[in-house]
Structure formats: structure tokens, C-alpha cells
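Support request, please re-run this one:
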Amino acid sequence: MTDKLLKFEYMIRTLIIFVLLLNSLAIEAQSSNSPSVQSHADQNIITGAERVDVYLRFLKGKKIGIFANQTSVVGNTHLVDTLRKLGVNIKVIFGPEHGFRGTADAGEKVGNYTDEQTGIPVISLYGQKRKPTPEDIRDLDLLVFDIQDVGTRFYTYISSMQEFLETALENHKPLLLLDRPNPNGFYVDGPVLDPKFRSFVGMQPVPINYGMTIGEYAMMLLGENWLSEKANAVNAYNITTNPTVDTPFHFLVIKCKNYTHKSKYVLPVRPSPNLPEIQAVYLYPTTCLFEGTALSEGRGTAKPFEYIGHPSLPKNMFAFTPNPNEGAKSSKHYGKVCYGWNLGGTPAEVLQKVDSKIQLKWLIEAYTIFPGKDSFFARPESFNRLAGNDVLMKQIKEGRTEEAIRKSWEPKLSEFKAIRKKYLLYDDFE
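Re-run finished. Output below.
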């Protein structure tokens, strides 16, 4: 097929998407394959950030503010360094949970500072504030967002992206989002968040594993008017399928190439300190629920979110001892031998264990054999925020089966899947 036909086919598809959204934008262009992104199944995936030839024209001659962290790489080089070498004027960097360099603990508040490697001021959006102020972006011409997500509702990068997008719209600053594959984007599952349990670890009525890239998720926020009232009021202007430097836009997604929702993408950089390998990323939608219980979720070990246990569980089970380390300076049961499960293995073995589902069997079994039932849900408010409701905890206490619990997720789960379909930029898994 010729380049002209490819571009025409893409323009038709994106036009349909933008009619549905009335406000968002995605473009497709040709670029060479990059060998820098490695995957055990899909080695030719090219991230949005790597498609510099597509989006550089929008950055040249502009004063840029960029929301980024250690995952914002182009090959083996950080996006900030890549753009600076190309003459892009980056005036300020915004950092999410874990900080711009990705070394802070989960939940650790990060202050503002000057990045030693670049000399660029860094404004933390996980400290005293979560949104840039109008003063922070007043002198900027364009905002850029590029952070690797893992596709799980309680992973806070999608919440940071939402508030960054709201700030852009509210202050009439164009936002360019560089899309990245979702390593858990090959299924949709879990309870849909009840709005009563809205928090920074769950801001929208989506299931635990929502099966969208962060670019698709942003388009859903726009299309469903799930943003702030002021941002939603701005939300519909300058629709175009092929923007030029002189064409104004409010939101632009630079798509990945060669990615679909069947892809098994392995991250080239750990997305946060306690997700050091793809096995942990695959298990995270399931095992992060243990954060709201008395059990260790493996923080302080070499296998966080793969080791699950407690000192009072049977001593014939798998044993491990968590201790403070970089990125997990404080957590549960440090220095104590815990007994429980080693859910790790090869990536293929862990994928088989996950089986494209939120697996409740380990949570149910842990509660069943735990000696002090009243203290199992040691952090009930935290557990309910992670679950997105107060029903799951009650169901486990009542001894409901996994099958019965899964049935209770309907019809909300099916309703979300129908919404999700409207905003996909990539071929789906079904």
C-alpha cells in the first residue's frame, strides 16, 4: 500500500474518533523502527516519544514545560536531553509521584528543586500541590506529557495526567502527549470505581485494569467530559486531522507505531522503584490490593508485588524477609520473616498465572488462613480506595467465592467496556 493510501486510511479513522470526542487529536506518520525498545513479544514497537520527526515541528521556537520522569526515554537517552540537543527550549520540568528521576518512595512527598544534570527547575506535582499553578505555566507556549503508565487505576500517573490536562485546558495552553504502550493493555477487568471512593488512587469510574494507553485514557477523559467544570467548558475547538505548526490545537496525541492491545510490551525502564521487572507489572493489578491488608506486598525485597506474606501465616509456606531499600525505606514487617506466596517466575509463567484477570484467589486464601480475621484488613480505608468500593472487603469477609464476586462487577464492567471502545487508537485484543 502506498504512503498516500496509508495516510488517507488513517485520516478517515481519526476523523471518526474526533467526531466522537469533539476536542482531541491524534496523528499518524511514518518513521523508522527503533531497536531501543525491547519486548519479549513485540520488538518493533515505537513509542510516541521516539517519533521525534513527527512532533519536533510543534516544539521548535516555543517555550516548553514538560511533565516527565525516568521513563521518558528516547532509546537510551532521556527525552529532556534529546530535545535539548535538538534546540528545544525547555523552561521547566514537572515531576509526578516518585519524582522526576524516579527514586522517591511510594507516597513520599517531593519538593521543588533544580535538576543537577540539566540545570532546569523541577516543580513537584506530588508534594504541596498536584496541579501547576497559572503562574507556573504563564510564560510557556506549550506543555508536553511523557510518562510510562502501567494501566492500573490506582497507579497515580493517570491521575497526574488528568490534572495536568485540566490545567492546560483551563489556562488555554496546548498539550502534546507522547503516547506509550500499556504493558497491561491486553485485558479489562476488576470492579468499576464507585464515585464515593474517588481519590488520587482512583479518580474515574473505571475498573482496576482498564486496558488503554495513557493517550487513549486522556481521550476518554475529554470525550466523556470527566474533567473539571472549567476544563470541560473549553473542551471543543479547532478540530483537525492533520495539524500544522500554524494550526492551533488544545490536545494532540502522538501515537505509538506497531502497537496493538494484543502486544506484550516490556518496559525498557522500571516505571517506579517497586516495579523492577515485567513480572511485577503483570501482578500489580492483583497484588496491590494487599497494600490495604496486614500482609507484606513484598516491598523491601528483590521481588515487590511478587512476594506476598505475613509473619503469622503457616511456616511451611514460602519465606522471605523484607528490609529497607532504595524506594522502599519504610513498609510492613521489615526485619521479620514472612510466610506466604512467591507468585513470580518467568514472564510467560506469570502471564499464565494472571490469565488476563484480576486474580482474587490469593487474597481470599490469605484471609481464610489468616489467624486474626479482625486485623486482616489493617488499613480498611486504603483497601476500599484501591478496590474502588466498600463491597469487595465485605464479600471477602462473608466468604463469597471468586466467581460470585466477579459476577457482582457486572453490569458496570460491560458498560465501561462499551465506553472504552469509542476511544481506542490501536487495534483491540478482541
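The first strand starts at residue 26 and ends at 27. Confidence is low (pLDDT under 50) at residues 1-27, 29-41, 237-241.
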